[in-house]
Amino acid sequence: MQRLLRKKANSIFTPSYIYDKSLIVNNLSFLQRKFAPCNADIFFAVKANTSLSVLKIIKELGAGAEVVSQGEVFISLKAGFKPEKILYNNIARKEEEVLYAIKRGVLYFNFESVDQAILLERCAKKIRRKIKVFVRINLGIFPDTHPHLSTGSPRSKFGITFDELKNNMSIIKKFKFAKLIGIHSHIGSQILKPAPFVKGVKKVEEVLVFLKREGFDITHLNLGGGFGVPYHPDEKQLDFKPIVNAYKNLYKKYGVKIFLEPGRFIVANAGFILTRVISVKQRNGIPLYIVDAGMTENPRPALYEAYHHINLLFGKKGRKFKVRVAGPLCENSDEFGVYHLPELKIGDLLLIHNCGAYTRTMASNYNGRLLPPEYLFDGKFRIIREKQRFENLIENEKY
Ligand code: LLP
Q1: Of 111, 318, 327, 364, which shows the fewest CB atoms inside 10 Å?
Q2: Whose CA is nearest to atom 24 of ligand 1?
Q3: For ligand 1, what atom is nearest to the CA of residue 261?
Q4: Is there a catalytic annotation at residue 330?
Q5: Ramachandran area for residue 373 (φ above 0: left; ψ -120 to 50: alpha; else beta)
Q6: CATH 2.40.37.10 region(s) of the chain?
Q7: Quick check: bond before 15 cis, omega within 30?
Q8: What is the pLDDT of residues 346-373, one digit of tens each?
Q9: Residue 252 — pLDDT band, cuts 50, 70, 90?
Q10: Between helices 195-213 and 241-254, what is the axis angle to 10°?
Q11: What is the pTM for the complete model shown?
Q12: How far, in Å, is the centroid of ligand 1 from the Cα of 263?
């Protein structure tokens, strides 16, 4: 892709998002192949990337969609996902959000508290349509990732505790429309070691045995997403073998259908931000390069001190220096970090890597900046979203 991008560079706007279709296809096919022995279905976590063009590629490969809001239900249906291939999770929803989804045929929902379980039953009863429900358990596991991404830890707001579930069995047993068919767990995101996943399976099994004993016909386990990707060249790929073995054993022992909901793994390395150096100065003896992309296009460095690899589109020979690369926004945290790069000049084009997940979906208009255009590379560069217009910045305002 980079070779062809060098040829086309003049016709591509900066900053912009560029997705390489072949990498999305490779990543999803890889997971489908790996987890085939586990009787697993994959639901893409739409929060990682909501581009219709990206979603369509994923849908074409047979995956479903995992959504966490009414808006994501809307987008997923627009992208062509069948409602029965949409899994609607969230820590808490309002009645109108649940009704919206049920009316459109969404079939799978999770709950993470007793009041939310009751809400699901009430909504399904109102429309007189049966839905299939998963209970998300807080497994109390530290998955060895950034605290913001550690959703399975005991202090995290997510999931219901096993004790709370046990104490409320009588309520859930009475449900006629929101039938409990599965257990849901998602211990965290950007996990690069297999051990937390394997540990999670043991806890899920305890809950499974308990619910079966209580008389529930648990036919599904949604084991979440969270598969990490190497952002830094020194990081290693996640070893899937122990995870596949653990999931396969669960399937073999209990005959359950396994659901997985990865986001990042499918799209992160397929997305790049193309950006241009727009100012050069020295700070404390090292060059500080200001580029035209920043925390508005990729807020991950500001939020999680995340590293995103950068390379020059047109490589340069010669010495590399320790340099800082920052965005143009009025905030100190708008900085990508410290890199080793050749000497740069204004106008040089840089590619920021691993920008396919949690960048465009967390982008903002801060500082009055317009959301950038997006391109899909499928042998050719196609524009899949135009750059925002100034009018969009004041849209819906009454003045
Ligand atoms: N399932 C549930 C219930 C989730 O909460 C998440 C992510 C996923 C699946 C997908 O996880 P993945 O496979 O993408 O790791 N903004 C952060 C990531 C937040 C993840 C939130 N939940 C970031 O930029 O790293």
Answers
A1: 318
A2: 358
A3: 9
A4: yes
A5: beta
A6: 2-16+268-387
A7: yes
A8: 999 999 999 999 999 999 999 999 999 9
A9: very high
A10: 10
A11: 0.97
A12: 7
- State the pLDDT confidence band at 152, using cuts at 50, 70 and 90: confident
Q: How many angstroms does the Cα of residue 300 sit away from the middle of ligand 1?
A: 13
**Closest among 230, 232, 211 to 221, alpha carbons compared:** 211
Q: Are 355 and 308 in contact (CB under 8 A)?
A: yes
Superfamily the domain 2-16+268-387 falls into: Lyase, Ornithine Decarboxylase; Chain A, domain 1 (2.40.37.10)
Residues 133/125, Cβ–Cβ less than 8 Å: no
Read off the tokens for 197: 């996943």
Nearest residue CA, atom 7 of ligand 1?
A: 189
CB 354 within 8 A of CB 231: yes
Cα-to-chain-centroid distance, residue 228: 11
Cα of 299 vs centre of ligand 1, distance in Å, is 15
Cα 90 to the chain's mean position, in Å? 14
What whole-number distance in Å separates Cα of residue 227 and Cα of residue 232?
15
The CATH H-level superfamily of 21-267 is Alanine racemase (3.20.20.10)
Residue extent(s) of CATH 3.20.20.10 domains in the chain: 21-267
- Give the helix, strand, coil percentages of the chain, each rounded to 5: 35, 25, 40
